[in-house]
Amino acid sequence: MLILELLYLLILSSFCFFNTVNEWGGGERWHLDMALHLRSKGHFVMVITYPEAVLGKCARKEGIKVFDIALKNLSVFNPFVLRKLVNVYKANMVDTVVLNLSRDLKCGGISAQMAGVKNIIFRRGSDRSVRNYFINRYLYQKVVTGILTNSQATKKAILSNGISLVNPDKITVIPNGIDTQKFLNKDFQALQPKQKSSIVLGALGRLEPQKNFKFLVPVALELKKRGVPFQFLIGGKGSQETRLKSLVDENDLTDVFHFLGFLDNPKDLLMSSDVFLLPSLWEGFGYVIVEASLSELPVIAFDVSSNGEVINEATGYLTPSQDVEAFCDKIIYLYDHPEERSLMGKSGKAFVIKHFESTKIFERIEAYLMGLD
């Protein structure tokens, strides 16, 4: 026991990333990237996640300690669940816990408080308002020591129901970061050769209602109507996959839609595309926009949430939400102007390297999590 305690003294801090999402998305990637960064700086890191979740599998593959727990929304009322989490925190001498979902906040936050964890951080990555209920006021005001958001849009959403929910000074905004050189140096395998006679439109993400992939069906119909040759490359899996494939089949679009499933290497899709499309109804921070820009792709997305913080007039286009004609106008412009397409792609790459390089951003997040920022 003495040896174990001495080892912990040699470690700067002990961090726990608490994320019980089953699928893989931007939030899960952020948790893994931060865990790896902190470990590289000499900190102890662990992950608490749902059994068989993708995050847990990735963390284990990297040699990170993982604790599995199956949480439900009412698990916070189960004293055995809370006690189990308290014991995990204490056994690993956790200084800081970073929580993801609302159920993570309830169970993981309250148990962390019971265990005497110094820093209880709720990382909010979704541009959705928070209901001003008693339980949320209690959690935001009495349990969490800080709230970390990835965009100004997300912070604004938290405060949309008034400052009685939480003091704005408790919210810190730090955008997501990406290891640009690692991404640029990463090998890839093109899915198909690019052709000058048609435009390849890439889209990547979880096939869930928020990501709004069904919008691409009327876009495809409009492009066909206007006589533009195109192909869609769709990467990702989710609850909407069957419905999307049915819509494509019903509209006789199977010749232009290619569903690729979950991709271990998103760069395969990106480097096979000419333009990246993001029809999401909202975003916390568009990780996929950053990767598309690093792949020198212009991006077309809705003018919602934080998209305007990641896309500017030199790197892509923002259109009104759900406006098929406006969306198609931008696609056709880029089809007709390949030189402009190339310039926008290069501008996007430079913008990402300047503003979202992980080295500086991860250091800011590390300082924040340690209470130094």
What do you see in this structure?
There is one protein chain. The protein is 43% helix and 16% strand. With 373 residues, the chain is an alpha/beta fold. It has 2 domains: 2-177 and 357-369, Rossmann fold, CATH 3.40.50; 181-355, Glycogen Phosphorylase B (Rossmann fold). A 7-stranded parallel beta sheet has the order 3-2-1-4-5-6-7, sandwiched between helices. It has a 6-stranded parallel beta sheet with strand order 10-9-8-11-12-13, sandwiched between helices. It is elongated. The relative contact order is 0.11.
Number of strands: 13
CATH homologous superfamily (4th level) name of the largest domain = Glycogen Phosphorylase B
Classify the fold: give the CATH topology of the largest domain.
Rossmann fold
Our Rg estimate from Cα atoms comes to 22 Å
Q: What is the strand arrangement across the widest sheet? A: 3-2-1-4-5-6-7
Strand content: 15-25%
- The total domain count is 2
SSE succession: HEHEHEHEHEHEHEHEHEHEHEHEHEHHH
Distance between the termini: 33 Å
What is the average per-residue confidence, as pLDDT, rounded to a whole number? 92
The CATH level-2 architecture of the largest domain is identified as 3-Layer(aba) Sandwich
Could you list the spans in which at least 5 consecutive residues all have pLDDT below 50? 4-10
Helix content: 40-55%
Helix/strand class: alpha/beta
Number of helices, counting only DSSP H or I runs of 4 residues or more: 16
